[in-house]
Amino acid sequence: MRRRDFLISSAAVLATACSRPQEPGPGGQDGGQRFQWKMVTSWPPNFPGLGTGAAELARMISRASGGRLTVRIYAAGELVPAFEVFDAVSRGTAEMGHTAAYYWKGKAEAAPFFCTMPFGFNAQEMNAWLYHGGGLELWRELYAPFGLVPFPAGNTGMQMAGWFKREIRSIEDLRGLKMRIPGLGGEVMARLGVVPVNLPGGEIFTAMQTGAIDACEWVGPYNDLAFGFHRVAKYYYYPGWQEPGPTLECIVNKKAYESLPEDLQELIAACCAAVNDRMLADYTAQNRIALKTLIEEHGVELRPLPEEVLAALRQASEEVIGESARRDAMSAKVRESMHAFREAVAAWHRISERAHYELRG
Ligand code: CA
Q1: Are strands 69-74 and 148-155 parallel, antiparallel or unpaired?
Q2: What is the DSSP string of 127-148?
Q3: What is the mean pLDDT of the chain?
Q4: How far is the CA of 243 from the centre of ligand 1 (A)?
Q5: DSSP character for 79?
Q6: pTM for the complete prediction?
Q7: Between 3.40.190.170, 2.40.30.110, 3.40.350.10, 3.40.50.2000, what CATH number should domain 3-24+32-157+245-284 receive?
Q8: Fold equal for 3-24+32-157+245-284 and 159-242+297-327
Q9: Is the pLDDT of residue 145 over 60?
Q10: Residue 67 C-alpha to ligand 1 middle, in angstroms?
Q11: Ligand 1 centroid to 12 CA: how many Å?
């Protein structure tokens, strides 16, 4: 190629590149560009709610993009183990991950707040804080040094306090119990003498069955019935003080995200928002059926945690969260944002949602 021709073709390539943002869609330059992504998850294959929600996200992105961005999903352990999702997406082994922020405290002290806070927001309030209360901006700031862009992508709604082999009548009954409970909830339980253990969902049943642990919390009736915890523990406690409305996260590798045209970036955000909403609806619809099955067909003993236990858990939660804020500037910033939002939203929900629940029963 002569130098003059080379310059002309280079200029043409440059013009094409510059025109890209103006010509998105199937007919434009970006229409021909295809992306094949991997999504690693912390969930067992096709696990109800969490796994099926992640699969729905992958399918939705692939179909809504007309195949321009196809996402292949991997269950925990298929490409990376459940608790290596954050690192795998950060280093680009996979472009995308579906998991929960409270598994990443070891990476970033403030991470658990973006999943749930003990005695904190319910799902509706969590979404309000993330989308309209500055929460998502703080989350993006926290994950930026890891090269990750987070999106809220699911919520289980209110969880259960968990499964116990023996009845819990007092704080004394908790002492020395080995319990699967991750995140801030685990740290709080430790203050009451419990030995908290973190295990991926897929390993909890065996640990309960072999006696490696005495108690566990996972999610709620829908998911707990699927794992069969009623076969290894009789007492099922509420309320899920530790996770009143946990957000699941979709994390995207920042470089991969920035390599996408704007319409596909927007598509990821829209699909995550859709799944965020649909997953909560799925849990609400399925929990109602599963709770009935657990009680009526499996004879599960449903119990509220004693008031003295809940009061002690509440006190310990404030201590744990306060200490985290003193240790870490970002945790202090997030806690302050959440607390200010909670105070105002609680005043509103006291006379709206709560008044309605009390009225309706
Ligand atoms: Ca849980």
Answers
A1: unpaired
A2: HHHHHHSSHHHHHHHHHGGGTE
A3: 92
A4: 6
A5: S
A6: 0.89
A7: 3.40.190.170
A8: yes
A9: yes
A10: 35
A11: 55
